[in-house]
Amino acid sequence: MPTNSEAKANLGPSAGPANRRALIAAAREVFAESGFQAPLSAVARRAGVGQGSLYRHFPDRIALAVAVFDDNITELEALVESDGSTLSDLFDLITAQAIGSTALVDMLISDRHDARTVHLGTRVVAVIDTILARDKSAGRIGAGVEAADVMLAISMLALMLSKSDPEERPSTAARGRAIFRAAFSYQR
Amino acid sequence: MPTNSEAKANLGPSAGPANRRALIAAAREVFAESGFQAPLSAVARRAGVGQGSLYRHFPDRIALAVAVFDDNITELEALVESDGSTLSDLFDLITAQAIGSTALVDMLISDRHDARTVHLGTRVVAVIDTILARDKSAGRIGAGVEAADVMLAISMLALMLSKSDPEERPSTAARGRAIFRAAFSYQR
Amino acid sequence: MPTNSEAKANLGPSAGPANRRALIAAAREVFAESGFQAPLSAVARRAGVGQGSLYRHFPDRIALAVAVFDDNITELEALVESDGSTLSDLFDLITAQAIGSTALVDMLISDRHDARTVHLGTRVVAVIDTILARDKSAGRIGAGVEAADVMLAISMLALMLSKSDPEERPSTAARGRAIFRAAFSYQR
Amino acid sequence: MPTNSEAKANLGPSAGPANRRALIAAAREVFAESGFQAPLSAVARRAGVGQGSLYRHFPDRIALAVAVFDDNITELEALVESDGSTLSDLFDLITAQAIGSTALVDMLISDRHDARTVHLGTRVVAVIDTILARDKSAGRIGAGVEAADVMLAISMLALMLSKSDPEERPSTAARGRAIFRAAFSYQR
DNA sequence: GATGAATGAGGGTTCATTCAT
DNA sequence: CATGAATGAACCCTCATTCAT
User: Fold this and answer.
1) Domain count, chain C
2) Structural domain includes residue B7
């Protein structure tokens, strides 16, 4: 009988959303610090939440990661909605995201056949399609460039960044950006 | 504590080299199938060898991987010694290697600070330097291309291949090759 | 990797304290029987508890031992609080503890630089200081006796007992007690 | 068929004694550096000898240790044969031995029931008996002191030294010596 | 609904001892 | 006789997942 003492107060149903948010925030930090394979127990601990609650809200690692990375994709989608945005801007944003945390790419790759992961990937492709059409019609990139090329370039760069030492990421990102700029001939 | 019961026959020292070769072959297969982080016990099992023997021959994962991948690098070195070889050939060979197994890149990246890994990396850089000088003087690539650019391109592509589904690797490799060819302007 | 099949019933959090106590009791027995270096897996097995639970409660051997031996030190501290107690009583008690189990000394010595071990040692020194001052002012021991002498004597005796055959411990203890009594001149 | 190369020359029977000596010397060093429980493989390696040869010469750890420590006991025996030697000298010598290497005590204690260990212990007792008779008849120690007292004192001190940090051994030895001097009243 | 303890398989590593050559 | 490789049990520790309360 738990007559004892300092167990965290059971706040009842109202704690649900708060815990969920805490878990997402904690996961974002833990994934950024320790990578996508970090122990889920570390996430629960950082969120100040029981492991059971973590599993209730997110039945597996992917469910948790999808919640975390939904924001990143949303950011990309917001970008393409602003009229002036270019492929170059997209590279910038994705690079910035990858420099900050690397776990999205790891997940997209390590669980690439999971339906939820596929869905995130689809949204990224849609973003690329949109921006590519705009850049082509503006003459900023060659007509021969396909969405799959851009997707591959983005993937390779983000993957590379995800494996680089953090302090080397900015210079690696710059060099990679230059290579792909040349390949896609943004400037003309 | 002592154990023995009805153990496998002890073949004596003469089994050493054979076991060593069996371990390297088993590691090559296991790394190709399950990636660089595959359990070493799986390597010992597949080689038909006790775990202790694995550790005698190769005190850690990197020592084993170095033995496995030494061949790959040697192949690259042989390539650059043939006079007519070009950067394009190097891409072809590395791509072919990465399509086959993937673990070399993983090791170069995940243990990038280990001295033995650094040594393998150095050999790759030397290969790139040689071939780059040759291609530049032949006018096959632009003067602005640096060895670090090539190294990054190769790394990104190999890393990407290492994470791709095996059946998609050939088409991914072709697409990547095309992107970097454009970037480095091989053709003019 | 997930495992479960027909596992032992999960009794939930309420089993925590009971398991903790079972672990301490099991460790006390195992340490007494097999010494301080006994396998921790034996402790878990005797406690009827998974290895993981052992590690959850006590992240390493020292944490477990500290829990086990806290009682011993507490007993010493209780002794010195009773006004009439003498150095001779302290020897008696420590000897009795060492005759029963032996692992405390082994730990104090084998992990002497660990902070938790140092802490236990400090508590023993405090006990000695208290009792030494009392005995000196009562004229029961010579003024030249230092705390370090007593500590060394106690350590040597307890260590010796810890290495003796159990059935010889009482006579060894008596002989050692006599030697140190003579050395410290209790009687005059 | 070992047609191959740099295997150590098989010198035939003549290598026997040389290997034996090399093993003893190596064991002395290894035991001094790493304690009595050091891996036997380390001894063979340091001796430049196969493990099989080690086991041929010394079928177990104790056989090897007996060979190593025979010298120590012989030194004690030589001491008591010089007419003027006293118990105090014996303490000095044993202390010096224990400060240098600690493994003899560990063996005498950890394998105390092995016949060979018993034999070494017997020789030490004989040394004590001789010197005790001499000191008593010279009036250097009290008539009440028994050989078992001296044996215990020596054991406790040597054991303690064997567990102390090397740099603290000299001061610990001095303090212990003083305690036992007082206990046995050497000076009067 | 939340809690958080328990589980236990699995991987890495070490080392005493054996034995074909 | 020496060699030195092989064996493999045993230990340590981690972590994904479950479930009584």
Assistant:
1) 2
2) no
Length of chain C: 188
Residues C49, C73 within the same domain = no
Find and give the residue nearest to F15, measured CA to C1'.
A39
Give A47 CA → E2 C1' in Å.
13
Instruction: Assess if residue B107 is contained within a domain.
Output: yes
* Residue C32 lies in domain: 12-57
Q: Identify the pLDDT of residue A179.
A: 95
At B13 the pLDDT is: 55
Question: Burial code of C132-154, b = ≥16 C-beta within 10 A, e = fewer?
Answer: bebbeeeebbeeebebebbbbbb
Give the pLDDT confidence score for residue A145 in this predicted structure. 93
Report the CATH number that the domain containing residue B32 is assigned in CATH.
1.10.10
Tokens of D53: 């040869």
Residues 6+ apart with CB under 8 A from B107: B36, B62, B65, B69, B117
Out of A110, A157, A184, name the one closest to residue B156 (CB).
Answer: A157
Kindly state the DSSP code that residue D45 receives in the 8-state scheme: H
Is residue C94 domain-shared with residue C125, that is, in the same domain?
yes
B33 and B97 belong to one structural domain: no
Best residue of C118, C179, C181, C185 to probe chain D, by most D CBs closer than 10 Å: C179
**How much is the average pLDDT of D145-174?**
92
Residue C141: inside a domain: yes
Among candidates B152, B165, B175 on the partner chain, residue whose Cβ is nearest the Cβ of A176 = B152
Tokens of C127: 């006990």
Which of A2, A5, A7, A3 minimizes the C-alpha distance to A49? A7
Identify the top-confidence range among C100-104, D40-44, D99-103: D40-44
In a domain, C114, yes or no: yes
SS3 state of residue A2? coil
Nearest CA in chain A to B109: A163
What is the pTM assigned to this prediction?
Answer: 0.81
Q: Show which of B41, B57, B73 is a domain's final residue.
A: B57
Distance from CA of C177 to the nearest CA of D (A): 11
Q: What is the spatial distance between Cα B177 and Cα B153, in angstroms, rounded to a whole number?
A: 9
Which strand E bases fall within 7 angstroms of a protein CB? 1-21
Give C107 to chain A, closest Cα distance, Å.
31
Same domain, C32 and C104: no
> Residues D41-48: what's their mean pLDDT?
92
Nucleotide nearest to B39 (CA to C1'): E11
Name the A residues in 93-132 with CB < 8 Å from any B CB. 109-110, 112
Residues B105, B139 share a domain: yes
C14 touches chain A (CB under 8 A): yes
Residues of C in contact with A44 (CB under 8 A): none
Residues A73 and A125 in one domain: yes
Which pair of structure tokens corresponds to residue B148?
């670090």
Q: Check if C159 contacts D (Cβ < 8 Å).
A: yes
- Is the torsion defined by CA of A179, A185, A186, A187 positive or negative? positive
Which residue in the set A109, A152, A175 is minimally distant from B149, CB to CB?
A175
Provide the pLDDT for residue C10.
58
* Positions on chain F within 7 A of a protein C-beta: 1-21
Span CA (A7) to C1' (E2), Å = 10
Q: What pLDDT, in 10s, does the model give residues C105-162?
A: 888 888 889 999 999 999 999 999 999 999 999 888 888 899 999 999 999 999 999 8
Q: Is A133 left (phi over 0), alpha (psi -120 to 50) or beta?
A: alpha
Assess whether D89 and D105 both reside in one domain.
yes
When CB atoms are compared, the residue of A110, A153, A175 closest to B179 is A153
Statement to judge: residues C52 and C78 lie in one domain: no
Using a CB-CB distance cutoff of 8 angstroms, which residues of chain B are in contact with residue A109? Answer: 163
Which amino acid residue lies closest to nucleotide E20, measuring CA to C1'?
B12
Residue D129 neighbours by CB under 8 Å, 6+ apart: D147
User: Residues of chain A whose pLDDT is less than 50?
Assistant: 1-9, 11, 187-188
